[in-house]
Description:
Pnp Oxidase, Chain A, single chain, alpha+beta
Amino acid sequence: MAHPRAERPHMPDYGVGTSSWAPLPWSWAAERLAATRSFWFVTVSADGRPHALPVWGVWDDDEARFALFCARRARKARNLAANPRAVVTIDDTVECLSVEGRAAPVDDARRAERWIERYLAKYRKISPELSADFLRGNLLVELAPERAFAVIEREEEFATRATRWVFEP
Length: 169
């Protein structure tokens, strides 16, 4: 995967924009996406009602994709059927990272099996009863990122490291 393009976000009211600004490298974001155990996943219903819940998920940096499993009748699944836009965030409130994009169910069986392998490799250590059959019985959702945003909530880094990344289609 080609790394997304880093930009300085327009945040002059927060002091972002000084000559000392330097973007965070994409590797900083990819490391956090790979290591995070629980993510916040945000969807929006057809009538605009937001929905946010923690989920387990897997980031694959080679494909620049995030995947999660949910019940087929879950609110997030219904929301995504009506509006594919979604946000996933890591659970850290000091080194903050959110990824915006479009999410959709994965219909390709071979692709689904690769996600199941990645998911089990990450989560079976903490949930030994987790099985491929259980995952196959749920909906696999894949988020294709459009942009990501990071801020570091430490005074000495906030204005100089806030970064937006843009993914090319």
